[in-house]
Amino acid sequence: MITVMLDAMGIGLIMPVMPDLIREVRGASLAQAAVWGGILSTAFAVMQFLCGPMLGALSDRYGRRRVLLVSLAVMALDYVVMSVAGSIWLLLAARIVGGITAAMHATAAAYMADISKPEDKAANFGLVGAGVGIGFVLGPLVGGLLGEFGTRAPFIAAAALAALNLAFGYFVLRETVTDRIRRDFTWSRANPLGAIRQVAHLPGLRGLLTIYLLYSIAYYVYPAVWSYFALSRFDWNPGMIGLSLALYGVSTAVMQGFLTRPILNWLGDRATVIYSHLFDMLTFLILAFLTNGFLALCLIPISALGSIMTPALQGIMSRAASDDQQGELQGVLASLHAISMILSPLMMTTVFAFFTSSGTPLYLPGAPFLVSLLLMGISLLIFIRARSAVT
C-alpha cells in the first residue's frame, strides 16, 4: 500500500502543471495544449499496454520484488529527464519510458493477490486503491503548491519520491513468489494479445474483461481533461486544481480503504458493480452542465462512490484465476487499462478542444463527460446481461 501510495504521489505531483508546461515548451493555446496532453498520455498508455503483461509474466517467474524495484529506479530517472526537458519531443520520450515503468502496477496488484485469501481479494484490492487515493491526495496538493514556484519544481519532487519509494521497497518489501506458484516465462503469455487471449478463456471472464475496458475508458475522463476542464469552466489556478484533485483522492481513499469491505458484505459483488455504474453516470451528467466551481467541489466526494466498482470487479476476476496466474491476469487488466488510457485521452481531449475552440458552434467544456456517460451506460447493460459470470 505504501509503495503504491508513494508512486501515485509522484504521478499526482505533475498533473496540476502539465497544461502550463506544455504551453511553455510549445507556446500553444490551452486547446492546443489539451491535444498535446492527449498525445503524451496516449504514448504513456501504449507502453503500458505493451509492457503490462510482460512485467506481470516476469513477476510470475522472477518475483514481484525484483520487478518493482527495477521499475522504481527507472521511474526516478524519468522524472529527472522531465524536469529539464526543453522540447515537446523530449517530454514525449520521457512519457514513453514512464509508461513502461508504470506497468509495475500490475505487479503490485499481483503481490496483493498473493497475500490475500480468496474471500478477501476484492476488499484488499480496495486497499490498493486506497493507497493510490492517498497518493493523489498528497501529490496534486503538493504539486499545485510547488507549481507556484515554476513548472519544473513538481518533477524534481516526483523524482525524489520515486527514489524514496525505491529505498523503502528495498528494505521493507519481501518476496511472495515461491516455487509453488512460480511459472516459466513465455513470450506467448508476455505479449498483450496472447495474454488477453489466454485469460479470456477462463470461465466467465470474456464479458467481464469487456466491461472493465469500457468502464476504464469512461472513468479516465477525469485525469484526461480535468485540469483543462477546471481551467476553462471555473478559471481555477494550478493550486486550486491541485486542491480539487486532493479532495478526490481523500474521497477515493476513504471509499476504497474503509467502505469497500462493508459495502461488499452488504450488497454483494453484483449489486456493488451496478450501483457504482449508476453513481458514475449521475456524476457525469451533472458535470457536463455544471458551471459553479463550489458545487463541483461538493460533487467530488459523491463521485468517489463509483470507485468501488474496480476492486469489486478485480476480486471477481482474481477468484476465477489460479494462484500461478495472478501476475498474468493483473498484467492483462493493466493492458486493458492502458488501452483506455490510449483511447480516452485522444477522445476526451479532442471533444474538449472542439467544444472550447474559438470557432465552436456550442461552448461546452463538459462535453467529454457526456461521452463517458454513454460508455458507462453500455458497460452497465453488458454487465446486467452477464448474469452467469457473477455468483
Task: Describe the overall structure.
The chain starts with a helix and ends in a 6-residue tail after the last helix. The protein contains 17 helices and no strands. The model has no long low-confidence stretch (mean pLDDT 81). With 391 residues, it is mainly alpha-helical. 81% of the residues lie in helices and 0% in strands. It has one domain (2-172, 188-389): Up-down Bundle (Growth Hormone, Chain: A), CATH 1.20.1250. It has helices spanning 2-14, 18-26, 30-62, 64-84, 88-102, 104-114, 121-147, 153-172, 187-190, 192-200, 205-219, 221-234, 238-289, 293-303, 309-320, 326-356, 367-385. The radius of gyration is 20 Å and the shape is globular. α1 packs parallel to α7 (121-147) and α2 (18-26) packs across α3.
Strand-helix topology:
Blueprint: H1 2-14, H2 18-26, H3 30-62, H4 64-84, H5 88-102, H6 104-114, H7 121-147, H8 153-172, H9 187-190, H10 192-200, H11 205-219, H12 221-234, H13 238-289, H14 293-303, H15 309-320, H16 326-356, H17 367-385
Helix pairs in contact: 1-7, 1-8, 2-3, 3-4, 3-5, 3-6, 3-16, 4-5, 4-6, 4-8, 6-7, 6-16, 7-13, 7-15, 10-16, 11-16, 11-17, 12-16, 13-14, 13-15, 13-17, 16-17
Number of domains: 1
- Unreliable residue runs: none
Proportion of residues in extended strands = under 5%
What is the first-to-last residue Cα distance?
A: 28 Å
- CATH homologous superfamily label: MFS general substrate transporter like domains
In round numbers, the mean pLDDT is 81
- Under CATH, the topology can be stated as Growth Hormone, Chain: A
Secondary structure tally, helices? 17
Q: Determine and state the CATH class.
A: Mainly Alpha
Principal-axis shape equals: globular
How many runs of DSSP E, i.e. beta strands? 0
How large is the radius of gyration? 20 Å
What does the main sheet amount to?
none
Coarse structural class: mainly alpha
Q: What is the CATH architecture term?
A: Up-down Bundle
Order of helix and strand elements from N to C terminus: HHHHHHHHHHHHHHHHH
The helicity comes to: over 70%
